[in-house]
Amino acid sequence: MHCTINWLPETGMAFSAETGSGHLLTMDGAPDGGGRNLAPRPMETLLAGAGGCTAYDVVLILKRGRHDVTGCQVKATAERAHEDPKVFTKLHLHFTVRGRALPPVAVERAIALSHEKYCSATVMLGKTAAVTTSFEVLEG
After folding, report:
1. Which of 38-74 are b and which e, b meaning 16 or more Cβ less than 10 Å from the residue's Cβ?
2. Which InterPro entries match (predicted)?
3. What confidence score (pLDDT) does residue 80 get?
4. What is the pLDDT of residues 120-140, one digit of tens each?
5. What is the CATH number of the domain that holds 103?
6. pLDDT tens by residue, 55-93
7. What is the 3-state secondary structure (H, E, C) of the chain?
8. Pair 111, 128 in one domain
9. Domain match, 28 and 64 both
10. Same domain, 86 and 129
11. Number of structural domains in the chain
12. What is d(CA 73, CA 80) in angstroms, rounded to the nearest whole number?
């Protein structure tokens, strides 16, 4: 896996990243740090990546268990240290999983497997942050 990040000096503090799979991502800093708020902050993209990684796991685990999952949303919230480096110190992931006759115990198990075994992002962030999860299951 690789990624190339380039500073876009004409924008102040924005950066473009090209992923190894050929996708482009733009990031920017806060206005008080020289940015112009043109794109997500780098730490926001890290938080989004962690949410995407665990959501992917949960859907895949449920599908492999032959559950009729029709939707998955993760609301990720994080707290950061006050001192540099301002690492995440708390990370909470709330899952809203939708499906037909989806057993809550299966959703709970899928989230636990992602959190404990499969999601590289949350396992890595768990080295500095207390990671907690919650969930709700909706019919449909």
Report:
1. ebebeeeebbebbbebbbbbbbebbeeeebebeebeb
2. KH_dom-like_a/b (IPR015946), OsmC/Ohr_fam (IPR003718), OsmC/Ohrsf (IPR036102)
3. 97
4. 999 999 999 999 999 999 999
5. 3.30.300.20
6. 999 999 999 999 999 999 999 999 999 999 999 999 999
7. CCEEEEEEHHHCCEEEEEECCCCEEEECCCHHHCCCCCCCCHHHHHHHHHHHHHHHHHHHHHHHCCCEEEEEEEEEEEEECCCCCCCEEEEEEEEEEEEECCCHHHHHHHHHHHHHHHCHHHHHHCCCCEEEEEEEEEEC
8. yes
9. no
10. yes
11. 2
12. 23
Could you check whether the bond before residue 9 is cis, i.e. omega within 30 degrees of 0? Answer: no
- Does the model's pTM come out above 0.85? yes
Task: Clarify whether residues 60 and 127 are in a common domain.
Answer: yes
Question: What pLDDT shows up at residue 130?
Answer: 98
Domain of 11, in residue numbers: 3-33
